[in-house]
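Lecture notes, unit on protein representations.

Consider one protein chain, 388 amino acids long.
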Amino acid sequence: MAEIEIGIGKSGRQAYGFDDIAIVPSRRTRDPHDVDISWQIDAYEFDLPLLGAAMDGVSAPRSVVELGRIGGLGVLNLEGLWTRYDDPEPLLEEIAELDDTVATARMQEIYKQPIDPDLIGQRVTQLKSAGVVAAASLTPQRVEQFHELALSAGLDILVIQGTVVSAEHVSSREEPLNLKEFIARYDIPVIVGGCASYASALHLARTGAAGVLVGVGPGNACTTRGVLGIGVPQATAIADAAGARRRHMEETGRYVQIIADGGMRTGGDIAKAVACGADAVMLGSPLARAGEAPGRGYHWGMATFHPELPRGARVHVGAIGSLREILEGPAAHNDGTLNLFGALRTSMATCGYATIKEFQRAEVLIAPSLQTEGKHYQRQQGVGMGRR
């Protein structure tokens, strides 16, 4: 792709987010009931190509279990409130009631509580005893310290997650985690991320990861793009990562799952993520709007409470329905925020594709007017697509 000159000696590619693109219907349509949106990673199969974000306002043991029963994969954060406190419910209630002016400072205090190693095993056991696939996340800095506790409790899928995770971390202060050696050590699928470029996705695939999370800063509660000035709009980031997946498969014959992480609000956004090359999506704020969500109508990222440089905000998202209604309907709203995966299925059927992998080949256009063309009254009245 041609680069645009920013100034003398500096140029860059144009990048695109979901609002900048449109999926083009093909010559064929299909019955939605004939569309298969199931997803598989390693030996684990799911009815929905969905991971619940490992954020305390989204994923508590009970909501992870409910998500698993519906057909998705919930991910519990092993460095969150549920491994710092035996009963974090009063603190979740307090966080939901905090004034915006003190929310970040108070959350920093709450998260100063050290992680209790005993609670790590207990939480994984809760998930296993409920009969769902047990997935949980750790940051690269704490993987060596805590992973054995989770694995010994029967963890099925490990997510190694940070704002940006690289296959080549350099530190003069401590021995960094060698992702390739770590992943080779265990017979368990490991998902790693985030990343936002072809090169970083390719290097993460080469570590042996089963899946790569794509997204740096697109989430509703994330302020990384403003605080650090880094990130890539999601449509471009996913397409670049999908290109890295193709190259890695040519090199090794091994298929790595590309998981779009963040930036999706509606079923249409999810459809665009898949059309750009994603195999599955990780959702945060859409799930935080469920009645079962632990955040009580609030959502915050796991960098919100960083003790030195917070890179997230506590945002009010409200509650719009049950978890099942948000994922599978029926929808009582017309803005695309309910029945997200019914929308994905219908989008695929309308464009004539039967599977996720087929849909990744859909034609996509640059279409900045897609959200506004012919929508004057909706935008004027704040209804339908005018709510965005």
